[in-house]
Design a protein that fits this description.
With 271 residues, the chain is mainly alpha-helical. 49% of the residues lie in helices and 4% in strands.
Length: 271
């Protein structure tokens, strides 16, 4: 909720009492997100205004968030990214965002787990990401293998310690990234479109990893879920050939990326 409200506050640089219902509706419509994600923003904004009313910051009913129509949430299966979409995501990303995206898509960590992850827990030499009990949603420590393509993405960014994800608000960063991917794709022939899909990095990893290994129990252990949860909430049927493409996504030869020393200097962190 904090990241969603952070984006909302950034859009309206004024007091909450000055924001109108029409402006809230325009803000929600401007989000290049799925209907479900827009409704999540609507819910967070409604909670904010309810809190402001109870504290007397705004008059009761000043902004009728409840009157803003809900976005249509199409009944779809588990949404994942295609290999082409993931390639575009990584190629359009700011360098500082690459580790978050790559770990999400090729290790399957949850957004909150990546946000708490320290570089000391990313062991490229040993080939594992350590998810400590304090960082994991399940409160149990686990080691998740680093596959070769992930190692290629993380190598230029690796540091001895420091936060893997330097951003306080990931929702804002992912929204901007989705807009950039969509804008570029629209200019191509034939034009394409792109929207960010809820929890799709993790769901993509699990779906493609199951297709690659043909071992649900192994993937459930790597993802920190039960096999039943993998089947019901995360796994989309994909072809083994697409799994090969997914885990072959790697930086282009000679691609321009920040060196770890430059990133460390930017963050004020020792390499």
């Amino acid at each position: 909720m904090r990241s969603r409200l952070g984006l909302f506050a950034e859009r309206f640089k004024t007091t909450i009492a000055m924001v109108t219902t029409a402006e809230i509706e325009d803000f929600l419509r401007s989000l290049e997100l799925s209907g479900r994600s827009r409704n999540n923003y609507r819910r967070a904004i409604a909670t904010l205004f309810y809190f402001a009313e109870t504290r007397g910051y705004v008059a009761k009913g000043a902004a009728q968030v409840e009157s803003v129509a809900l976005a249509k949430e199409h009944e779809v299966g588990i949404e994942i990214f295609t290999p082409e979409e993931m390639t575009r995501i990584l190629n359009h990303s700011e360098p500082k965002l690459v580790p978050f995206l790559a770990i999400g898509g090729f290790v399957g960590l949850r957004h909150a787990e990546i946000s708490r992850l320290d570089w000391s827990q990313v062991r490229l030499d040993d080939g594992f990401v350590e998810v400590t009990a304090s960082n994991a949603r399940t409160a149990s420590r686990c080691l998740v293998p680093i596959l070769p393509n992930l190692k290629a993405w993380l190598g230029p960014h690796q540091r001895v310690h420091g936060k893997v994800c330097p951003y306080a608000s990931m929702s804002k960063q992912l929204l901007w990234l989705a807009e950039a991917v969509h804008a570029q794709w629209q200019q191509e022939t034939p034009p394409g479109s792109f929207v960010w899909k809820h929890n799709a990095l993790r769901r993509s990893f699990i779906s493609y990893r199951v297709a690659q290994t043909q071992n649900v129990a192994q993937v459930a252990l790597e993802a920190g879920n039960s096999p039943r949860m993998v089947f019901s909430n995360y796994r989309e049927l994909v072809r083994p050939a697409d799994a090969v493409k997914w885990f072959a996504i790697a930086p282009a030869p000679g691609a321009s990326v920040l060196s770890s020393s430059h990133e460390a200097a930017a963050f004020g962190t020792t390499v």
